[in-house]
Amino acid sequence: MSAAGVLDLVRSDLRAFSGYSSARSSALVGDVWLNANESAWANPADPQGQARRYPEPQPEALRARLAALYGCEPAQLLIGRGSDEAIDLLVRALCEPGRDAVLVTPPVFGMYAVCARLQNAPLLEVPLRDAGDALDADIDAIIAAALAGNAKLVFLCSPSNPAGSSIALGAIERIAQALQGRALVVVDEAYGEYAEQASAAILLPRYENVAVLRTLSKAHALAAARIGSLIATPALIQVLRRCQAPYPVPAPCAALALAALEVDALAVTEARVAQVKAERERLFQALQQAPGVLRVYPSQGNYLLARFNDAQAAFDALLAAGIVVRDQRAAPQLHDALRITIGSPEENDRVLQVLAARRAAA
């Protein structure tokens, strides 16, 4: 699939769209900056004057660091306000309202459907299959539904939130191959650091209709900084950049992200990811023995999905003890389920203690 083929997936009215040219779009050099109507003085709360200037639209140092982290070229990477902005940009740039569909695999992260609704893009749902020990993507059904339903975007959450299951790279490749020239396959790897398999970004050299979402919100503990990345073919990145707001990355957030990607900080993050994986296995084994727990699904994320004989009672007991978990009962197929994030060992012990106390109370 050529770059022209990828651009064929973009809305025809946006392929040559120039977007907004901001004051920081051109590489101008000077020592008196009077082109952006910024204040000549710093705010009293900002004595260093770091906030009075508009930031780089795509901070080059951060872009290069993220590209190195994710194993791609800077030209293949777009930085945005978390993964949410990239999802919204993709839907708006590729889907003609009322015509081009978005395919999702519920139960799954809700922003795909929200962005589709806001764009008036038809929503195709291919539910995960409950195999008893896992909630897995139905690859054949995804391909068939995408082809029959005029899907322009196929969102694959891997590891899946909240199910915890991953989609094998071979299965993602099969979907991409079947949908070449028809749809962009977007693999959301928000929890990729906790997974055992390689990133789907390794498929990009062979399949230009593959894109990958990454974030610093989870494993890198920068949720408040809102630093997300989209990895895709450079031609698509250029189109999305022209559709993006002019200054998506606040300078303090970019500086924080750069510091978080230094060697020493990355070593700490790697150690913490390993600890989360160990705690995930410990909690998985312990929850299976906890009173009232019907089933716990294996997970490749930093969370576990568990079914309860009385999910409301379990939720209330945890909340009464000051522990907030995610109630999943409104999601398809999850009428009895809670999602529990893997916390510190002490926090995980508190979860188990509360659930164990329910047996004593009974």
Report on this structure.
The protein has 11 helices and 13 strands. With about 350 residues, it is an alpha/beta fold. The protein folds into 2 domains: about 220 residues, Aspartate Aminotransferase, domain 2, CATH 3.40.640; about 100 residues, Aspartate Aminotransferase, domain 1 (Alpha-Beta Complex). A hairpin with a 5-residue loop joins strand 10 and strand 11. Helix 5 runs parallel beside helix 6. The longest helix has 26 residues. It is globular. The model has no long low-confidence stretch (mean pLDDT about 95).
* Structural shape: globular
Fold-level CATH name of the largest domain = Aspartate Aminotransferase, domain 2
> What sequence of helices (H) and strands (E) makes up the elements?
HHEHEHEEEHEHEEEHHHEEHEEH
SS content category: alpha/beta
Number of strands: 13
Radius of gyration (Å):
22 Å
Low-confidence stretches: none
Major sheet details:
7 strands, mixed
- What's the number of structural domains? 2
How would you name the oligomeric state of the polypeptide chains in this document? single chain
Mean pLDDT: 95
- The CATH architecture of the largest domain can be given as 3-Layer(aba) Sandwich
